[in-house]
Amino acid sequence: MKMTNQIISFSGGKDSTAMALEMLERGEQIHSIIAFDTGWEFPGMMEHWDKFEEYTGLKLVRIKPKEPFDYWMFDRPVKKRGTNIIYRMGYGWPSVMRRWCTREKVDAIRRYQKTVKNPVACIGFAANESLRAGRISGEDAARRYPLIEWDIDEAEALSICKRHGFDWGGLYQHFTRVSCFCCPLQRIDDLRTLRKHYPDLWSKMLAMDSRCKGGFRDHDTVHDLERRFQAEDRQLMLFD
């Protein structure tokens, strides 16, 4: 398979960043590096995107959903299946069974890939994530997983990024994975960390929660979690 039109899928996390850096160091031919801007990224991640461009001299192809994620979450008319009857406005928070955000990202990436002749999608799954690679189906482009090919795991990927001077403003000091700051699928410990170290983003999540119908995580709302975390804080103060 000729690798003349390799397209790097760049989230900006440690794995996709390490993949891009290693491909450049190994002299691989790269057609483009695409980054999907959800509008819900950590500010430190957006700064990382800019720093990556400055460091490599390459411009990211920044793609966006057809409509902002806030529209999909709060304002999009949702119809009953097979009818024109609108029964709610907005999809609400994403969930395991309703990952509309992932669908929008995949669709946007596919639209871009279709503009490139013989595209090869380079995806930054680390060597210890090979099972994830087997779950992807239905892509329009051929696929590569360079980190898996080179046996680079997540820890080594982070080391590669640090060697090149990337620190994401400290995001990886607080989180093992970095996705949308408001993702309901992140671990409860990560949500505690978000509330503690990024109170402005937590406040934004509370405001989003006030507009949203349905639960944030299982049957809990963000406000439910806030009350839970407040109670935990009070308990810690008693022991202190």
Protein described:
This protein has a five-stranded parallel beta sheet with strand order 3-2-1-6-7. A two-stranded antiparallel ribbon has the order 4-5. It has 240 residues and is α/β, with parallel strands linked by helices. It folds into two domains: 6-172, Rossmann fold; 187-232. It has helices at residues 14-25, 43-56, 69-75, 100-113, 130-135, 146-149, 154-163, 171-174, 188-197, 199-211, 222-239; strands spanning 6-9, 32-36, 61-63, 77-79, 86-89, 120-122, 142-144. Helix 1 crosses helix 7. The protein starts with 5 loop residues before the first strand and ends with a helix. The longest helix is centred in the last third of the chain and has 18 residues, at 222-239. It is built from eleven helices and seven strands. The mean pLDDT is 91.
Sheet bearing the most strands, described? 5 strands, parallel
Shape: globular
Number of domains: 2
Number of helices: 11
Strands across the major sheet, in which order? 3-2-1-6-7
User: In percent, how much strand structure appears in the residues?
Assistant: 5-15%
Query: Per CATH, which architecture of the largest domain?
Result: 3-Layer(aba) Sandwich
Assign the structural class, choosing from mainly alpha, mainly beta, alpha/beta, alpha+beta, or little secondary structure: alpha/beta
Q: Tell me, what is the CATH class of the largest domain?
A: Alpha Beta
